[in-house]
Amino acid sequence: MPQGDYIELHRKRNGYRHDHFQRKRKKEAREVHKRSQFAQKALGIKGKMFAKKRYAEKALMKKTLAMHEESSARRQVEDDVHEGAVPAYLLDRESTTRAKVLSNTIKQKRKEKAGKWDVPLPKVRPVAEDEMFRVIRSGKRKTKQWKRMITKATFVGPSFTRKPPKYERFIRPTGLRFTKAHVTHPELKCTFNLEIIGVKKNPNGPMYTSLGVVTKGTIIEVNVSELGLVTPAGKVVWGKYAQVTNNPENDGCINAVLLV
Amino acid sequence: MEIDGAIEQQRELNNSVMCQLSDPEGTPLGPPLYLPQSAGPKELVQMVNKLLNNEEKYPYAFYISDQELLVELGSYLTKNKVSVEKVLTIVYQPQAVFRIRPVTRCSATIAGHTEAVLSVAFSPDGQQLASGSGDTTVRLWDLNTQTPLFTCKGHKNWVLSIAWSPDGEHLVSGSKAGELQCWDPKNGKPSGNPLIGHKKWITGISWEPVHLSAPCRRFVSASKDGDARIWDVTLRKCVICLTGHTLAVTCVKWGGDGVIYTGSQDCTIKVWETSQGKLIRELKGHGHWVNSLALSTEYVLRTGAFDHTGKKFSSPEEMKKVALERYNKMKGNAPERLVSGSDDFTMFLWEPAVSKHPKTRMTGHQQLVNHVYFSPDGQWIASASFDKSVKLWNGTTGNFVAAFRGHVGPVYQISWSADSRLLLSGSKDSTLKVWDIRTKKLKQDLPGHADEVFAVDWSPDGEKVASGGRDRVLKLWMG
Which of A35, B58, B163, B471 could be joined to B205 by an S-S link, Cβ 3.0–4.6 Å? Predict the structure, then answer.
């Protein structure tokens, strides 16, 4: 950027170049392409900042276009009848708590009648015993190998007390014990952090179910009282089944999908 | 031992308490009396009837410092450790002579609406039922056969509110398109063209009381565009427009002294006079939208000249006279009280005729207060809030009495039974609950709706309850 006015002085004294205006016009026409090239090439923080600025410009342009399209003629009150009628006291309120209202349990009753639950993950990879357990050596000479430590996530329950360490065959390390699960509602697509009540079934075997091991595909029971569900008979629903969708020992958390 | 027994007996007879009976407004009835401690509510009822020289024995309930007296005086005193030295003030409250049976079962589920039912109202004599819905129709239902009677088509958008005239001759409904339509309830036909004037949707409708003008001609409607309009059904036009609110008017009530109260989203309540539409008073105090208003005489104004005896009237003048008698009896000497519930989680109790400052501020709710309602005898105030509880307050002083918890979702609407002994609440969790005022506990749980319950109403003769909601069916409940 010129710091003085020498350019203007020269222009006043000598005039413009013969092709100055043509070149200026063509250069400005090329600006658009140059900007787009830069937007596509720029990497890293530079690219991000430019993209943000460009987006703001785009939004502003859209708004001005919409403003110009608005006619100045008085518009009639909207005629079409919308769905989802609400009474007058709910009209000005956003239904942010709509996420907590669940679909009615008629679907659930139909499923119960059919007698089968179609779970989101019908098949899971079987977990081998040597993957699940790690051998712990014990004894004075470290020769005894009857103890096993579970290497997967477990749920033990609030009233759990260990057996005396001398007789305990399966060790569940506290670092791998979980009490809460991130449960997603499949229709509303929102996730809640709910307490686990118990492990219902582990697909790898009844032994793992009784130990409380939580792997991918396990059906767990979660406490849904914070969702405020009510059965048609008027009773409050506080426990529902959910199926685990991730490998908790790799992620450090249990993600599950609610079975509705 | 015999002697000890005799001494004990004497001691018991000597144990009496100085009591002063007074009515709910504070005026004492008779001189202070020396009552034995074995006296209970039954003996007190006899005494009050004699002191008031009643021909029939009316039932009364007794309250000592806002707690109901259910046992003998002696046990009450020992339980609460009240000293015998001071004069005990016992407040007596007349109870309704008739008793309403609580509703327990759903007698009918009537389908008919194709969209959610937004409002439900019984006629003042309890013989007819109307409901407005999101499918733009108003439907009239036959209560004897529990089937649909008429379908009133004519609105362009959702029917948000309906109101019966206190003489039962007219039914008016307001829609989201800002138009009002008057229907003839006998044949379900519109009584004329839609009344247009509001620019946005109608939030509430209230008729002029019968004792001020019979037959009923005028009603006031409130709208989101910020003004309230007074309409005349015989002239079929808007007579006065009450402008002044800067935001939507959420509720409107026509008071018994001939003033109109409007509550608005601009946090104020305005009091208007009805002959010229001038603003009399502005009641400020709330911190957020005013959601709902209730008057202490509201039930009497709604039912007009009809009461639980089910009498029919021959002429409008007779209706006016009877309605005026009922209104004066209900009001007594005290000025009309107004309670307003707001989004700022509190309610105010006002006496608008006396002062523009609130009488009491009623706090305690943890979420916005959606609906407030005075009991038919004006003794209690009930408030429904989005914090899943219904709270009961004293109707004259505004003191908190009890909280009813049991709902698992926001409570939308409440309704009283005609004898003020039972309270009904409908909530987003699809259940209705009946609460007993005497025991302050849940009387009956009424599940059955498949989705949120938007509107509830108890018929003035106390026989039936009607409820409607998002599941599009109208449910009738009976005792």
Answer: B163
CATH assignment at residue A179: 2.40.10.310
B173 touching chain A per CB within 8 A: no
Query: What is B105-478's CATH superfamily?
Result: YVTN repeat-like/Quinoprotein amine dehydrogenase (2.130.10.10)
How far apart are the C-alpha atoms of B388 and B300, rounded to whole Å? 29
Phi, psi of A6 (to 5 degrees): -65, -30
Pair of tokens at residue A12: 């006043």
Q: Which helix (H) or strand (E) holds A255?
A: strand A255-258
Please judge whether B201 and A91 are an interchain contact, meaning their C-beta atoms are less than 8 angstroms apart: yes
Q: Assess A75–B contact: CB distance below 8 Å, yes or no.
A: no
Task: Please give the residue range of the domain that contains residue A172.
Answer: 129-258
Fold of B16-94: Ubiquitin-like (UB roll) (3.10.20)
Which chain B positions have a beta carbon within 8 Å of A79's beta carbon?
Answer: 156-157, 177
Strands across the sheet containing A170-171 = A133-138, A144-150, A170-171
Residues 137-166 of B with CB under 8 A from A: 156-158, 160-161
Q: What is the mean pLDDT of residues B131-152?
A: 90
Q: Calculate the alpha carbon distances from B165 to B126, B143, B183, B418 in Å.
A: 12, 19, 11, 18
Same domain, A17 and A136: no
**CA-to-CA separations, B150 to B141, B142, B158, B197, B289, in angstroms, rounded:** 7, 9, 18, 27, 37
Q: How far apart are CA B206 and CA A194, in angstroms?
A: 46
Complete DSSP assignment for A27-91: HHHHHHHHHHHHHHH--HHHHHHHHHHHHHHHHHHHHHHHHHHS-SSPPPPP-SPPSS---HHHH
Residues A146 and A237 in one domain: yes
- What total of structural domains would you count in chain A? 2
Structural domain contains residue A92: no
- Do the interacting molecules here have an ipTM over 0.85? no
As a whole number of Å, the end-to-end CA separation of chain A is: 66
- Closest CB from A91, A92, A233 relative to B447: A233
Predicted confidence (pLDDT) per residue in B94-127, tens digit? 777 777 788 888 888 888 899 999 999 999 888 8
Q: Please give the full DSSP string across A154-211, using - where no structure is assigned.
A: E---TT--PPPTTT--EE--GGGB--EEEEEPTTT--EEEEEEEEEEE-TT-HHHHHH
The rounded distance, in Å, linking the Cα atoms of B173 and B160 is 8
Token pair, residue B88, equals 């005990």
Query: Could you tell me if residue A19 is inside a domain?
Result: yes
The mean pLDDT of chain B is 87
